């Protein structure tokens, strides 16, 4: 593709300055597009923060009380009686109040069949069927338990997160009802609570947006750097600008270095705004901010090198897009953000550890959530992407560029 002709007498410094000026002019001509690229990470993170991993609300749960076709009205203050004939209504109202505090909506049905049918049709995530007379013999809880009427719960487990949220809410509500009733029988406070759960890190709430966000920052910036570099380089390649530089005596490696250097301005703005968002949300120390910034910048440089290699190895823009997608999705899926890596086959676990994104995601997540790095986290986050950058540069210089110049 490229034919090497006589070189000019310009020095390497002059060539470098000319390349920097040319690339800066490209940024200036496309300043609106570059400004959009600069703020794109923040836009994505704001959407992610408000759309993914937040506590579930607005879940609908069906319920019915046997032999009660009229709408049930629950008092604001529930009275807990130790030896009442039936606990059905008081338990139902207690669960209803507790679930409504979590913004879970309860819809009453006349019978269990209609309630269960609403789960089948997708109108409700679960159905609770309360017996007409739910009796609890506190002094004889082990005898006749098989014959005792029970609350039946039918769930839609096609969405596991929704199902686990409803199940946990109903279980906690039932335990708190038992505790309140036991206290009226003379039991000590907390006698039904045998295990005390506490969150050393994170929260006990069913939310994961704050725990997922640090790794998503690393992944997003890596892929944006890859896409930016690949797009600009494949554009220059299609327009013949790289060929023109080569025939003018400018080494392709120098042209690529200048391209990446200028694009680093956009990347630095992206990283700065993203780290500022992390600082606002997690309030880390100065040391953690410096380590996080360095790890993310290294990931962006790795992504830029990936983008350069892809754009040079592929002949058309369509091939660049296909190659980028083939790289992006496996690294994203195996980074352990969506699901723990320990559930993957052993081969994939070892492969994930060798990818540049995985140690960086682990390191930034530990820095933001734990306040320190676990084990050799920082070294892994530096050595693995550093090795990829070195390997890709060697591959480009001694194979891809030589093949490009021969063609």
Account of the 3D structure:
With 407 residues, the chain is mainly alpha-helical. It contains 13 helices and 4 strands. It has helices spanning 12-29, 31-51, 88-101, 112-120, 160-184, 209-238, 241-247, 252-282, 286-313, 317-333, 346-354, 357-369, 377-406; strands spanning 59-65, 104-108, 126-130, 152-155. The chain has a 4-stranded mixed β-sheet, with helices on both faces. Mean pLDDT is 86; it is low at 1-8 and 140-144.
Q: Report the biggest beta sheet as strand number plus sense, adding barrel if it closes.
A: 4 strands, mixed
Question: What fraction, in percent, of the residue positions are helical?
Answer: 55-70%
Rg on CA atoms, Å: 30 Å
* Shape, principal axes of CA atoms: elongated
| Mean pLDDT metric | 86
List how many beta strands DSSP finds: 4
As residue ranges, the low-confidence spans are 1-8, 140-144
The strand line-up of the biggest sheet is: 2-1-3-4
Task: Give the SSE string.
Answer: HHEHEHEEHHHHHHHHH
Portion of residues in beta strands equals 5-15%
Structure class:
mainly alpha
- Count the DSSP helices: 13
| Measured distance between first and last alpha carbons | 4 Å
């Amino acid at each position: 593709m490229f034919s090497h002709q006589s070189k000019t007498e310009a020095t390497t410094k002059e060539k470098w300055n000319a390349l920097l000026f040319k690339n800066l002019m490209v940024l200036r001509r496309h300043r609106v597009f570059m400004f959009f690229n600069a703020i794109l990470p923040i836009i994505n993170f704001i959407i992610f923060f408000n759309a993914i991993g937040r506590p579930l609300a607005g879940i609908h749960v069906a319920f019915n009380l046997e032999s009660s076709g009229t709408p049930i009205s629950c008092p604001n203050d529930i009275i807990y009686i130790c030896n009442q004939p039936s606990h059905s209504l008081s338990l139902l109202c207690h669960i209803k109040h507790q679930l409504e505090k979590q913004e879970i909506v309860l819809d009453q049905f006349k019978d269990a069949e209609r309630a269960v049918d609403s789960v089948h049709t997708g109108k409700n995530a679960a159905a609770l069927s309360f017996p007409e007379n739910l009796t609890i013999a506190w002094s004889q809880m082990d005898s006749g338990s098989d014959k005792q009427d029970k609350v039946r719960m039918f769930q839609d487990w096609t969405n596991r997160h929704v199902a686990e949220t409803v199940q946990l809410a109903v279980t906690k509500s039932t335990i708190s009802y038992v505790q309140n009733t036991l206290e009226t029988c003379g039991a000590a406070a907390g006698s039904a609570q045998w295990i005390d759960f506490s969150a050393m890190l994170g929260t006990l709430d069913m939310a994961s947006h704050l725990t997922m966000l640090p790794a998503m920052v690393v992944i997003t910036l890596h892929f944006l750097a890859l896409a930016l570099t690949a797009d600009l380089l494949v554009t220059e390649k299609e327009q013949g600008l790289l060929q023109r530089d080569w025939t003018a005596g400018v080494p392709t490696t120098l042209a690529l270095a200048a391209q990446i250097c200028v694009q680093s301005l956009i990347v630095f703005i992206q990283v700065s705004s993203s780290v500022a968002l992390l600082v606002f949300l997690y309030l880390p120390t100065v040391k953690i901010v410096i380590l996080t910034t360095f790890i993310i910048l290294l990931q962006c440089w790795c992504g830029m090198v990936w983008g350069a290699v892809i754009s040079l190895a592929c002949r058309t823009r369509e091939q660049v897009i296909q190659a980028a997608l083939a790289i992006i999705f496996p690294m994203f899926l195996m980074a352990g953000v969506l699901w723990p890596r320990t559930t993957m086959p052993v081969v994939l676990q070892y492969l994930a550890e060798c990818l540049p994104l995985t140690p960086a995601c682990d390191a930034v997540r530990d820095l933001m959530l734990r306040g320190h790095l676990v084990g050799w986290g920082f070294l892994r986050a530096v050595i693995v992407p550093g090795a990829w950058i070195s390997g890709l540069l060697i591959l480009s210089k001694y194979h891809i560029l030589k093949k490009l110049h021969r063609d």
